[in-house]
Design a protein that fits this description.
151 residues, alpha/beta, 5 helices, 19% strand, globular
Length: 151
Protein backbone atom coordinates (compact mmCIF):
# COMPACT_ATOMS: atom_id res chain seq x y z
CA UNK A 1 0.00 0.00 0.00
CA UNK A 2 1.25 3.48 -0.89
CA UNK A 3 0.01 7.08 -0.82
CA UNK A 4 0.73 9.36 -3.78
CA UNK A 5 0.29 13.12 -3.95
CA UNK A 6 -0.24 14.68 -7.39
CA UNK A 7 1.50 18.06 -7.62
CA UNK A 8 0.80 19.11 -4.02
CA UNK A 9 0.50 22.83 -3.33
CA UNK A 10 0.90 22.98 0.45
CA UNK A 11 4.05 21.88 2.28
CA UNK A 12 2.13 21.31 5.51
CA UNK A 13 -0.11 18.74 3.85
CA UNK A 14 2.91 16.92 2.45
CA UNK A 15 4.51 16.92 5.89
CA UNK A 16 1.34 15.51 7.44
CA UNK A 17 1.09 12.76 4.80
CA UNK A 18 4.78 11.92 5.32
CA UNK A 19 4.07 11.58 9.04
CA UNK A 20 1.07 9.35 8.26
CA UNK A 21 3.19 7.19 5.96
CA UNK A 22 5.98 6.88 8.53
CA UNK A 23 3.62 5.92 11.34
CA UNK A 24 1.68 3.39 9.25
CA UNK A 25 4.65 1.93 7.39
CA UNK A 26 3.29 3.09 4.03
CA UNK A 27 5.46 4.58 1.29
CA UNK A 28 4.71 8.03 -0.11
CA UNK A 29 5.10 9.10 -3.75
CA UNK A 30 5.35 12.81 -4.58
CA UNK A 31 4.53 13.70 -8.17
CA UNK A 32 6.15 16.96 -9.24
CA UNK A 33 6.04 19.82 -9.85
CA UNK A 34 5.11 20.83 -6.32
CA UNK A 35 3.76 24.26 -5.40
CA UNK A 36 6.59 24.94 -2.96
CA UNK A 37 10.34 24.36 -2.85
CA UNK A 38 11.26 20.96 -1.43
CA UNK A 39 13.24 21.44 1.76
CA UNK A 40 13.56 19.84 5.16
CA UNK A 41 12.53 23.13 6.76
CA UNK A 42 9.30 23.43 4.73
CA UNK A 43 8.25 19.93 5.73
CA UNK A 44 9.49 19.95 9.31
CA UNK A 45 6.65 22.11 10.61
CA UNK A 46 3.99 19.45 9.90
CA UNK A 47 6.05 16.28 9.55
CA UNK A 48 8.26 16.97 12.56
CA UNK A 49 10.91 14.30 12.99
CA UNK A 50 8.57 11.71 11.48
CA UNK A 51 9.18 12.96 7.93
CA UNK A 52 12.76 11.68 8.07
CA UNK A 53 11.43 8.19 8.82
CA UNK A 54 9.04 8.14 5.84
CA UNK A 55 9.81 6.16 2.71
CA UNK A 56 9.52 8.84 0.02
CA UNK A 57 9.91 8.59 -3.75
CA UNK A 58 9.85 11.81 -5.77
CA UNK A 59 8.75 11.56 -9.41
CA UNK A 60 9.69 14.26 -11.91
CA UNK A 61 6.19 14.16 -13.45
CA UNK A 62 3.01 12.12 -13.91
CA UNK A 63 4.49 9.97 -16.69
CA UNK A 64 7.45 8.91 -14.54
CA UNK A 65 5.15 8.05 -11.64
CA UNK A 66 2.67 6.15 -13.81
CA UNK A 67 5.47 4.13 -15.44
CA UNK A 68 6.71 3.03 -12.00
CA UNK A 69 3.26 2.23 -10.55
CA UNK A 70 3.45 -1.26 -8.98
CA UNK A 71 -0.28 -2.05 -8.62
CA UNK A 72 -3.71 -0.51 -8.90
CA UNK A 73 -4.18 3.25 -8.85
CA UNK A 74 -6.97 4.34 -6.49
CA UNK A 75 -7.98 7.98 -6.94
CA UNK A 76 -9.51 9.81 -3.97
CA UNK A 77 -12.01 12.23 -5.45
CA UNK A 78 -15.15 14.17 -4.61
CA UNK A 79 -16.97 13.28 -7.83
CA UNK A 80 -18.07 10.28 -9.83
CA UNK A 81 -16.74 7.65 -7.49
CA UNK A 82 -17.51 4.59 -5.42
CA UNK A 83 -18.43 5.62 -1.86
CA UNK A 84 -15.70 4.62 0.60
CA UNK A 85 -17.91 2.11 2.51
CA UNK A 86 -18.42 0.16 -0.74
CA UNK A 87 -14.84 0.36 -2.07
CA UNK A 88 -12.69 -2.78 -2.02
CA UNK A 89 -8.94 -2.40 -1.63
CA UNK A 90 -5.97 -4.64 -2.45
CA UNK A 91 -2.59 -4.76 -0.66
CA UNK A 92 -0.66 -3.31 -3.65
CA UNK A 93 -2.93 -0.29 -4.14
CA UNK A 94 -1.57 3.24 -4.41
CA UNK A 95 -3.97 5.86 -3.03
CA UNK A 96 -3.71 9.01 -5.15
CA UNK A 97 -4.53 12.46 -3.76
CA UNK A 98 -5.05 15.33 -6.17
CA UNK A 99 -3.52 18.77 -5.91
CA UNK A 100 -5.19 20.87 -3.22
CA UNK A 101 -6.03 23.63 -5.68
CA UNK A 102 -6.98 21.76 -8.84
CA UNK A 103 -7.35 18.03 -8.20
CA UNK A 104 -6.11 15.92 -11.11
CA UNK A 105 -6.41 16.40 -14.87
CA UNK A 106 -8.61 14.18 -17.06
CA UNK A 107 -5.75 11.89 -18.17
CA UNK A 108 -4.85 11.12 -14.56
CA UNK A 109 -8.51 10.49 -13.69
CA UNK A 110 -8.80 8.16 -16.69
CA UNK A 111 -5.77 6.14 -15.52
CA UNK A 112 -7.36 5.27 -12.16
CA UNK A 113 -8.43 1.67 -11.65
CA UNK A 114 -10.81 2.79 -8.92
CA UNK A 115 -12.15 6.20 -7.87
CA UNK A 116 -13.25 6.53 -4.24
CA UNK A 117 -15.26 9.28 -2.58
CA UNK A 118 -15.62 9.88 1.15
CA UNK A 119 -19.32 10.42 1.94
CA UNK A 120 -19.96 13.83 3.47
CA UNK A 121 -22.90 16.06 4.28
CA UNK A 122 -24.33 17.61 1.09
CA UNK A 123 -23.36 21.19 1.98
CA UNK A 124 -19.66 20.32 2.37
CA UNK A 125 -17.22 20.50 -0.59
CA UNK A 126 -14.27 18.46 0.55
CA UNK A 127 -11.95 17.41 3.36
CA UNK A 128 -8.30 18.39 3.68
CA UNK A 129 -6.16 16.02 1.55
CA UNK A 130 -4.19 14.73 4.55
CA UNK A 131 -7.41 14.01 6.46
CA UNK A 132 -8.77 12.23 3.37
CA UNK A 133 -5.59 10.19 3.09
CA UNK A 134 -5.87 9.08 6.72
CA UNK A 135 -9.54 8.08 6.41
CA UNK A 136 -9.11 6.07 3.23
CA UNK A 137 -5.78 4.56 4.27
CA UNK A 138 -7.33 3.39 7.54
CA UNK A 139 -10.11 1.59 5.70
CA UNK A 140 -7.70 0.16 3.11
CA UNK A 141 -5.38 -1.17 5.83
CA UNK A 142 -8.34 -2.65 7.70
CA UNK A 143 -9.56 -4.49 4.61
CA UNK A 144 -6.13 -5.80 3.64
CA UNK A 145 -5.00 -6.65 7.19
CA UNK A 146 -2.13 -4.20 6.69
CA UNK A 147 -2.10 -2.35 10.01
CA UNK A 148 1.36 -2.15 11.57
CA UNK A 149 1.98 -4.65 14.32
CA UNK A 150 3.21 -3.90 17.82
CA UNK A 151 0.44 -1.53 18.86
Amino acid sequence: MRIAMFQPDIAGNVGTVLRLGACMGVGVDLIEPMGFPWSDRALARAGMDYAAQASVVRHVDWEAFHAALPGRLVLLTTRGAVPLPQARFEPGDTLLLGSEGSGVPAEVRAAADLAVAIPMRPAMRSLNVAVSAALVLGEALRQTHGWPTGA
